[in-house]
Amino acid sequence: xxxxxxxxxxxxxxxxxxxxxxxxxxxxxxxxxxxxxxxxxxxxxxxxxxxxxxxxxxxxxxxxxxxxxxxxxxxxxxxxxxxxxxxxxxxxxxxxxxxxxxxxxxxxxxxxxxxxxxxxxxxxxxxxxxxxxxxxxxxxxxxxxxxxxxxxxxxxxxxxxxxxxxxxxxxxxxxxxxxxxxxxxxxxxxxxxxxxxxxxxxxxxxxxxxxxxxxxxxxxxxxxxxxxxxxxxxxxxxxxxxxxxxxxxxxxxxxxxxxxxxxxxxxxxxxxxxxxxxxxxxxxxxxxxxxxxxxxxxxxxxxxxxxxxxxxxxxxxxxxxxxxxxxxxxxxxxxxxxxxxxxxxxxxxxxxxxxxxxxxxxxxxxxxxxxxxxxxxxxxxxxxxxxxxxx
Length: 391
Prior knowledge:
Layout: H1 18-32, H2 51-64, E1 67-70, E2 74-80, E3 83-88, E4 91-94, E5 101-107, E6 112-116, E7 118-120, E8 127-129, H3 131-134, E9 135-137, E10 143-154, H4 157-162, H5 167-184, H6 188-192, H7 196-213, E11 218-229, H8 235-304, H9 306-322, E12 328-330, E13 338-341, H10 343-351, E14 362-364, H11 369-390
Antiparallel strand pairs: 1-4, 2-3, 2-5, 6-10, 7-8, 9-10, 10-11, 12-13, 13-14
């Protein structure tokens, strides 16, 4: 206090002298830069500091911090004291420097991936299972383990920044909600096998509807089913059930093949029998018609000449009767005996192409002739009695 030159002139009750304070500050600043010699150098009046150029330089640097560049496929969101002012397109831009305005650059075309039901380790192909997300209940009350990957980008930068704080968690939660609803309305076999692509398409559509309803600014690019299988605890039993189903289908196919082989043959046999029955029917009808026509013709001739027709019928009947007899009796003229000729054997030998053998002639005793004549007379009498009864 004693070395202070202005100590004696300062009023203890009043404020400090600003000029004196400024001079002291100038002396200290000059001493810092090595001006005015050492501490024992004579004091001199301080030189004025160029404040305006310094302030101008600082202002230029401050304004220069407001320049920024938005990359292709991105958008720049300008905030003024935290309030959204504008959204800038790709290219060089300028805004009021901090702390008045700030810029947040958002990549709109970058495709991001969200994993549901599993997590991939960075730098490795291994996957960690998330059973809380992957286990789902189907419509037929079966549990399946379903994993999928969702790819998305942004379609509205304002909604993505101001209406959605955690985009990845939002997409994961909505994806889990959509896929659980779809699987809950589907059968297990449909979800595991033939319906995987259809389920993915339905999940994409439902997720987009939910995201648009909440104005999240997110666009679903693709939904891919990574894995769909029963839980590990029942995998062996499920494999056995699948094998049993395959055996059932195989046996069904074998049965169909056997039926396709037997049924056409049975139908062919039935068709053949029907054709034979139709032919037999036609033949019997034609024979009946022919017999009826012949009988009418014989009746007409009998009415014209009864005696001649009667004799002709008798001869025809004898010819029909004798044609089925294997023995033939020949009346040998001028002899006392009849010869037996085995004509059936001769005919069979002739039909086989063999030369006819010498006939075995057996003599017939003359005493048998009256008996043969009596038999012939009885046959004629029986035929005449039937003829009279018919008339």
